[in-house]
Amino acid sequence: MHRLDVAVVGAGAAGIGMALALQKVPGLKFGVLEAGRVGESFRRWPAQTRFITLSFHSNPFGLSDLNAVNEPSSPAIHSGAEHLSGPQYADYLTFVAKGHELACHSRPIAGKGSTTQWIPDGWRSCSAWM
Fold first, then answer.
1. Residue 67 backbone phi and psi in degrees, to 5
2. CA dihedral 108, 110, 112, 114 (to 10 degrees)
3. Entry's InterPro entries (predicted)?
4. 68 neighbors 91 (Cβ within 8 angstroms)
5. If you compute the radius of gyration of the chain from its CA atoms, what whole number of angstroms results?
6. CA-to-CA distance for 35 and 45, rounded, in angstroms?
7. At the N or C end, where does the chain have fewer CB atoms within 10 A?
8. Of 89, 76, 77, 90, which Cα lies nearest the Cα of 39?
């Protein structure tokens, strides 16, 4: 059993952003719990769906990318696109999570239909499922 001070549920934009903030707190034990992969809900977007907000890197002007989960990163620069698709944004989130070595955990196996079953083999680090 893992003992955490904070458990972040979900490895989407809010979950990864929160984990990055928590990583700055000395001595805090936290983990990100995800039933799928990092950015899983974005990966399920229909192919034609794109972000409405323009994504661009504006740090030279002291501003961060509107769609970024932290100030130094940019989904636009990572993906080479201004209006990202769901999978492009999920790949960006995965890149950020790996780059910051976030403690992400998942135990999924595909179930029937939209259900998820949990396997009892313990937690795996995010590098095993990204």
1. -95, 5
2. 70
3. FAD/NAD-bd_sf
4. no
5. 15
6. 17
7. N
8. 90
Residues in the chain: 130
Question: 27-46 pLDDT, tens per residue?
Answer: 888 888 888 889 999 999 99
Q: List, in order, residues 6 or more apart from 98 with CB less than 8 Å away.
A: 126, 127, 130
3-state helix, strand, coil in the chain (%, to 5): 30, 15, 55
Helix, strand, or coil here: 124?
A: strand
Strands (E), 16-107: 30-33, 104-106
Print the SS3 string covering 57-70.
CCHHHCCCCCCCCC
* pLDDT at residue 13, as a whole number: 95
Residue 74: what pLDDT?
A: 87
